[in-house]
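Changelog entry: the Zinc finger protein 568 record was regenerated in this release. Current contents:
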Amino acid sequence: MLHMSSHSGEKPHVCDTCGKSFTIKPYLTSHMRTHTEGKSLVCNLCNKSFKAKQSLMSHIFNHTGEKPYACDICGRSFTRKKWFVAHMHIHTGEKPHVCDVCNKPFGFKQSLVYHKKIHSGEKPYLCDVCGKPFRKKMHVVNHMCIHTGIKPYVCHVCNKTFSRMHSLKRHMCSHTGERPYACKLCDETFTYKRQLETHEHRKHAKEKPYLCDIELKFTEMKEPEKNLSS
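Regenerated structure tokens:
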């Protein structure tokens, strides 16, 4: 059975810490050492261990609620300096992290990491119920609502419920008439992000040479969602 997993691609053994999955348990056991080895600094509040002093200090802020790194533009604050630096890219428009496959730039390093999984096809996060794989751990959490039937987000206007906050925010535009997604290359605005992406890829693809061919094809296959306010 263990050998057959190497042929089927099944990875039933999942790391509880980072969500990475493995074909056999010994691989998972070996991987778990990467989360514990060389971590001599221990939080005296929860006993979690860290390799670097800065990581421990940032972790302690989670207990104290302190966020020493504040943005002068919007006032948002952060426990870690690297998160603050990454946040500033939103205001400056800087995108220093570039995909070495398709040259698409990103403001956040983690966004680039997720994007590159499109090229590699990697989906390390598995649903414990049906085994469906996902690129992001957050997507697994959202997916689980299909199995549980839980829809915790409620529209205060019509009482319609949603499994994801993003879906609720998108739905609210049908009540407010808001079109929050604006094209940077022309004056058109859209209710949904997917509509904006489709518009940019179809109307302005030649003006944005860094567009990923894989994402372009994928987006063009999507049908833009109907404006619920119409």
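The mean pLDDT is 79.
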